[in-house]
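Write out this protein's structure.
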Amino acid sequence: MVSDYDLQRKLRKMKTYLKQYSRILESSGLKEAKRSFKESKGIIDALRESIVSNLSNIEAICPELDNSCDNKSANLELLLIYLHNEIKALNQNIKSQKRKEQLEELNKLSKQREEMTEETEKLVMQAEKASEMSLRKEEMRLKDDLNKINTEKLRRAETEVRSLKDSERDVLLSQQRLELSRQLLSKTGLMLWRGERSSICR
């Protein structure tokens, strides 16, 4: 017959495993681990009740144990092994979950980087287009200024040409007047000369 002390010692060991199991669960938040934890806790609670009731029928409360074995201490040892393996499996699940989360985070960061690269390329293209538009506007402004300058120069040139033509016309008119005056003076002088000769002859 296994002593109560031996069973209590193994029960304390199982409680230690259970606390470790609980701490891992609290830090992981895995649904599957929580479900497994509830199952294991149920086994421990049932085992505690069994010990209180004169340590009877331990085999019946844990299907994973060897029901053919009548040694309660051996069954408790199997239960310890079961809890230990559960904790190992839980740690593996947590590591796998963390790796999965890290991979998802890396994929997310990679996607964000691609989006940022695309956004940067769009901004560069927009800047280039804006620069081209600015250059076109500047070119159009310069052409407009040049046209205005040329128009003003042409207007001034036309004004100068008209002024020169007016001056040439005035000069020509003056020359014509002078010529008429000269001719008139010549005729007047001739008439006077003839008049003087006529009076002398008489």
